[in-house]
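Illustration 12: MSMEG_0569 family flavin-dependent oxidoreductase.
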Amino acid sequence: MNAADIFDVPVAIIGGGQAGLSVAKQLHKKGIRSVIFERHEKFHSWRVNRWDSFCLVTPNWQCRLPGFHYDKEYGGTDPHGFMLRAEITEYLDAFARSFEPDIREHTRVTRVAPHDDGGFIVETTAGTWTCDQVVIATGGYDTPIEPPYASKLDPAITQMHSVDYRSPAQLPDGDILIVGTGQSGVQIMEDFVRAGRKVHLAVGPAPRSPRKYRGRDATDWLYDAGHYDITIDRHPDPHKAMTQTNHYMSGRDGGKEIDLRKWHVDHGVELYGSLADMDGSKLKFLPDLKKNLDDADASYVGICNQIDAYIAREGIDAPEEAPFAKVWEPETERTELDTKDANIASVIWAIGFRPDYSWIEVDVFDGRGKPEFHRGVTDVHGVHFIGLGWLNTWGSGRFLAIEEDSAYLAEQIERQLVMVGTRSVA
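Figure caption equivalent — predicted structure in token form:
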């Protein structure tokens, strides 16, 4: 490689989702050229890796891409609704058209490493690039998680991860076991209930949230109260914030909360504790169903109390709510189940993902392989991350804070480019 090729592009952005394109938009405003590399097509995870009935869990007004807010520049007419999958991709595609980024689709990045002459080398399936700055915008959803004991399950039972799930029609007749009660697990549960299918649910430690409370969506109250402005540096329990599963609720049918106790009583969903093992047709669960339900309710009540305190503090006239009451308690902890006796024909794993950073050969990771940064800026000059949970606030990794996060990162990139005298215009 000759010297003329060393700085082929000022900024390489890896990942063509909303985070990567948001950084590109902010750099474009500053006259800084960037190239986005996307292994599939832009917004692939929204277009392909979501089930048919998927909709947002947070209200549309929280969709605030840089200079392209849902209810302003985009002209959306339902700010308190919850966009369906097709509507989300329409919004994202319109954002991309608003500034026409340089994006190389169907181009996988296989290696990022320091260049001998400065900057970085970016090897892709469509050739090799060099750059001054690299932005990692691939998110944390690379590798679907399935436990090792999944291989011991009776092979006659169909197994599927939530990333591959589209509708109940994909799965054979019979009961379904859904493992995990984060946002994906509980929404897929509803899909099967609506399809008239019997659901068995392994309840994990995910917290839950009210949907509408005292006359408004709970997220509206929390936004006004400044809850979403709390940074990870100021959070009272940053470890919990970083490791806790998202609160479960739904945007379906205009938005609803999910109380698993009610789904058991009203729809016959069978509830168990966390899945612990599988062997043939035998399933084993931990005796933690009561604890997990109680903990989820404690989170629910805690959010309600937080909203109550804000209303009282500000002297707001808002309707009262009846105090929370449990509609059902498990009498015993069922720790064993035979899939044959229960007529379980399928298992859906909804227990999350792991990121894959194996292609990054830069010393920006801790001993557990987690990237280290402050607001996305690492200690290695020129290497940055965007689109991860709690990059700075709760809204990081979501639509709500991507404008702020990408603006900050673009400022840091511009400063670093100016420091080494390589700032380039688009």
